[in-house]
Write a structure and sequence with these properties.
13 helices, 10 strands
C-alpha cells in the first residue's frame, strides 16, 4: 500500500492510498459522509488488487486529508480534488466509484471537467441531490433524525449520533473491532466539516442527463440511509445504466457482501472499452 499527499482544490492537501496492479485499469474509490479510505478495506484487500490499480482518497475534511474551515459548498473545489488525483497519479481512464455522498463529488467533477478522462462511473447507495424536499425524500427518517447530532460540538452527542449512523449503514451486526475502527475515523471529522457537507443545495439532474459513459448503480435492498427508491430516480436520468440490487445488504453494500459487490464490479470494469 502506497500513500500520497496531493494538493487538491485551493491547495488543500489530500491523503490518497493505492494498491494493486500498477498496469491494471484504475478504480478510484470515493467514500461517503464522515468516512475515510478505510471504508473500502474489503475492496483494497481483495482479489481485485490482482488485476486493477486500486486508489482510494480521503475527501477534504476527512481522514488524513487537510480539514479547511470553509469551501465545502464549492462544487469547483470538489471537482478540482478529483481532477488533482487523476492528473497527479496519471490515472488512465479510471472508473470513479462513489459511495453515498461520494457520487455528489463525482458529479461535481463531471460538471466542471466532463467525462473524457474517465472510463466509467459506479454509484453505490448514492445520493445525487442536496438541500431540497426532493433530496430529503429519498433519505430515511432515521438518518434525518441524526443530523443535528452530526453538527454538535458536545462529544457525547456527537459520538452517539455517529455510532448510530454506523449501525444504520450495515445490514447486520459489526464485530466490536470493526465498530470502533469505524467510529474512530468518523470522529476525526470535525463537526464544522459535517455541517459544511450538508450546507450545499445541489440538483444534478442536468449533469446526470448528459452522462454518456457506462454507469453501474449498486444499491442494498436493506439500505436504511438512502431509500432504494433513489435507484428509480437515477435510472430515469440514466436509462443506459446497469442496476445491481443487492439482497441482505444495507447502505454499505460493499462491506455487507463484499464478495458479491467485488464480483459485480469486476464484470463492469472488464466490459469497459480500453481505448
Amino acid at each position: 500500500m502506497q500513500s500520497h499527499t496531493i494538493p487538491g482544490g485551493g491547495g488543500t492537501r489530500l491523503h490518497v492510498v493505492e494498491t494493486g496492479n500498477p498496469q491494471g485499469r484504475p478504480i478510484l474509490y470515493i467514500h461517503g459522509f464522515s468516512q475515510c479510505w478505510l471504508a473500502w478495506s474489503r475492496q483494497l484487500n481483495s482479489d481485485l488488487a490482482r488485476d486493477y490499480r486500486l486508489v482510494a482518497m480521503d475527501m477534504r475534511g476527512h481522514g488524513l486529508s487537510e480539514k479547511p474551515q470553509h469551501g465545502y459548498d464549492d462544487t469547483k473545489l470538489w471537482a478540482d480534488d478529483i481532477n488533482a488525483v487523476i492528473e497527479t497519479l496519471r490515472l488512465d481512464r479510471p472508473v470513479l466509484c462513489g459511495w453515498s455522498y461520494g457520487p455528489l463529488v463525482i458529479l461535481d467533477y463531471i460538471r466542471h471537467y466532463g467525462e473524457d478522462k474517465i472510463g466509467g462511473i459506479h454509484f453505490v447507495d448514492a445520493a445525487t441531490k442536496l438541500g431540497s424536499e426532493e433530496a430529503a425524500a429519498v433519505l430515511s427518517p432515521e438518518f434525518l433524525a441524526l443530523i443535528p447530532g452530526f453538527y454538535s460540538t458536545d462529544a457525547k452527542e456527537s459520538v452517539g449520533s455517529l455510532e448510530a449512523l454506523i449501525r444504520l449503514c450495515v445490514a447486520g451486526e459489526l464485530a466490536p473491532e470493526e465498530l470502533y475502527l469505524m467510529l474512530g475515523f468518523n470522529v476525526t471529522v470535525p463537526p464544522y466539516v459535517r455541517q459544511g457537507l450538508f450546507s450545499r443545495t445541489v440538483n444534478n439532474d442536468d449533469v446526470l442527463a448528459g452522462i454518456r459513459k457506462p454507469v453501474l448503480i449498486t444499491h442494498g435492498n436493506e439500505d436504511k440511509v438512502v431509500k432504494p427508491a433513489a435507484v428509480d430516480q437515477h435510472k430515469a436520468a440514466l436509462p443506459h445504466a446497469e442496476v445491481h440490487m443487492m439482497d441482505r445488504a444495507g447502505h454499505a453494500a460493499f462491506w455487507d457482501d463484499a464478495s458479491n459487490f467485488n464480483a459485480r464490479q469486476r464484470v463492469f470494469v472488464d466490459t469497459l472499452p480500453r481505448g
